[in-house]
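Handoff note, outgoing to incoming analyst
You'll be picking up this chain. Sequence as last confirmed:
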Amino acid sequence: MHRTRTPASLDNLVDDILLQIFQTLSAQEILALRQTSKRYYLLSKLRSVWHAAFCTEVLARNLPPPGPLCALRALSAADLEYRTLLALSLQRRWPRSTSTPKVIVSSKTRERVDQILFIPGGTQILTVHGNRVVYWLISGQPGAPQRLQKVGEWSSPSDDTCTVVKDTEGQGIIAIGCRDKPNKHATVFSLTLKPALSKLCDYSLIPGTVAGISRHLLFLDTTSEHDGGGLELLDWHAKTEGTALLPRIPDLFGPFLGFVHFSDHILVAWETCISAFPVPDVPAQGRMVVAHTKVFMFSEPIGLPVAFTTCVPRGWPGTDTPVYPQFPEEASSLTIVARPKGKSGRIALSMLIPLGNNDGAKYPPSFPYRLFRLSPFVPGVLGDTDRGLRAQECTQICMGVVWARAIRLCGPSLLYIPPREMQFGPAFEMGKVIETSVGDRVDFDEGMGRLVVAKGKR
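Most recent structure output, in case you need it:
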């Protein structure tokens, strides 16, 4: 008797074997297989499938993982799928290997650009023209000519020049305020809702000037107040009138330079130090003062520009990184890049690194970090001395890109920093100039690894 042999089919395999097969597929193959049956659709939604795709197609190829920094183990299946597909889409649209920038002209009308912002996702740009903010969409297929399509515009109620800040951790949230004049208006918008530039919250009068937006908090610079002020926080999501003050000690801290969310704290950079504050619960009414968790003094005063980077492209926790001692959840390093005050030809580098096991008793457990000073960097290439460019002024630093008379790439590298074996820190590509010009507006997104430049008055 001869048995009838059943034709080989994936449908005959158990789920465990199918999952192993899914984990070897590319992102496009996963999406194609997802369309064939309900069973494959459900399997393609599992986290292990997109964890493998993310590690293979994004991290192994050194593509910048889009979105805010967080540990790989903290990402859901949907988040891993979204970041994988977005990273691949960005690579097709804006290949990192190309050395020639793509020129996109909006119209024949030349207009002064006061500020330009690159929105995470790589397809949206905001430009500021005096008291007007224009919202652009980059259209065109990968490999084809790109163009800008105007999809929205907003005008300030006053004639003052606007400033726009974006939430790098949110989905298309921005805030607009007056650039130079304190105690004016502030408005929070969404770029993902319809219509374009949908208003979420509007303040007719705020203390200070808009300094940034992160998650549900709107940050206001009130250092011009007579009592020293500091960084004032509004809960725009709850639309409350109360504020929380991250105070400044005028004679000790100096002017406010910038801030960043890091390790469940808000780090504020001042001229002489960086101070760590817990994330406060903003009161509904009145003003509360938040106490410092810790203050780190710089070895020398710094000035603008200043930027913070966690070296996202190669510094993500949890994937093929050197074996470190065990540290608290989400422990990672933070690099502070700034220009030393009065020294235009240098860039000061400092790094907050987790404490070693032997240092835990010396420092508050609520913020177990120490400040490590790195060797200063002089942005120049071979031959600059002969051309008299050694002391060129650094006018802007955008989280991984140094802007002086030229835009130069900067990426993460491994540094030996005791007591841990290695840390991720910045490494500057000395010889590669992306663009050369003076006075242009530039914005860079660390998660996307892409930058946008507004040339001249265009």
